[in-house]
Write a structure and sequence with these properties.
With about 260 residues, this protein is of the alpha/beta class. The protein has one domain (about 5-255): Putative cyclase (Glucose Oxidase, domain 1, 3-Layer(bba) Sandwich). It is built from 7 helices and 15 strands. Strand 5 (about 85) and strand 6 form a beta hairpin.
């Protein structure tokens, strides 16, 4: 592809922002504190000789708040292979994760089931395979596979977005094995934990162990509504984590180009 063809392709494409906005009212998993932002300097606190004033903010958050990607070292089984020090991970920290540019596919399970949003359902490999067949999607090795449950539309309603009484929908252990069998490069969804989570489940974590253990990053709290509204099922997925040395994850703002 020459330069003119590339520019033509870019100019005729649509860019979809898959990141959720961060604010002090953003929903968050109860394991983590809320997002905090305060103005450290306000306009007028300091005035430069030329008359310029400035404002700057202090942000306090975890590396698993909002739309974020899990580092490979985020989980381990009974502390196995999880070197960690006082300032973070000493192996597989998020700074070791390269930017992602890959073919992306959207598994719109909410649309396939003709519902606004899934309940706290456990998705199996058969469920996802069925959606692939119905929506004409083929998953290839290295793909970024994004699962839409419909929860993303409730981001502005924290208690509805994450209901600790009911839990979140997502793949169960068998579904995680199905995804891994596809040799995907990245997995993501519009929920807080990607995999199925709820007060009555005792297998939470199996999907994280399955995918992160295979070197497959997991992105959570995606905004997949724009892609769903445009009926986009295949796209160029672009994402880069912050180089937080020793970090167990990183806030991200993924893009889909279609």
């Amino acid at each position: 592809m020459d330069e003119s063809q590339m520019l033509s392709l870019i100019s005729s494409s649509m860019v979809f922002d898959l990141g959720q906005p961060l604010s002090v009212n953003s929903p968050h998993h109860p394991n983590y504190p809320p997002f905090t932002l305060v103005l450290q300097y306000r306009h007028g606190d300091l005035v430069m000789p030329c008359g310029m004033t400035f404002a700057s903010s202090l942000i306090v958050t975890t590396d698993h708040h909002g739309t974020h990607v899990d580092a490979i070292g985020h989980v381990s089984r009974a502390h196995e292979s999880a070197p960690q020090g006082p300032t973070g991970l000493t192996l597989h920290g998020i700074q070791t994760m390269p930017p992602v540019i890959a073919r992306g596919v959207l598994l719109d399970i909410a649309r396939a089931r003709s519902v606004e949003s899934l309940k706290a359902e456990v998705l199996t490999g058969e469920d996802m395979e069925q959606v692939c067949m119905e929506q004409g999607i083929t998953i290839y090795p290295g793909d970024a596979v994004l699962i839409r449950t419909g929860r993303g539309q409730y981001w502005g309603e924290p208690e509805r977005y994450y209901n600790s009484t009911e839990g979140d929908p997502g793949p169960g252990a068998e579904g995680g094995r199905w995804l891994r069998s596809k040799a995907i490069g990245l997995a993501g969804s519009d929920t807080t934990a990607f995999e199925a989570i709820g007060p009555h489940r005792d297998d939470f974590g199996e999907v994280h162990l399955e995918l992160l253990g295979a070197g497959v990053p997991i992105v959570e709290n995606l905004n997949l509504e724009p892609l769903a509204e445009a009926r986009i099922k295949e796209f160029l997925f672009i994402m880069a984590p912050l180089k937080i040395v020793g970090g167990t994850g990183s806030p991200v703002r993924p893009l889909a180009v279609a």
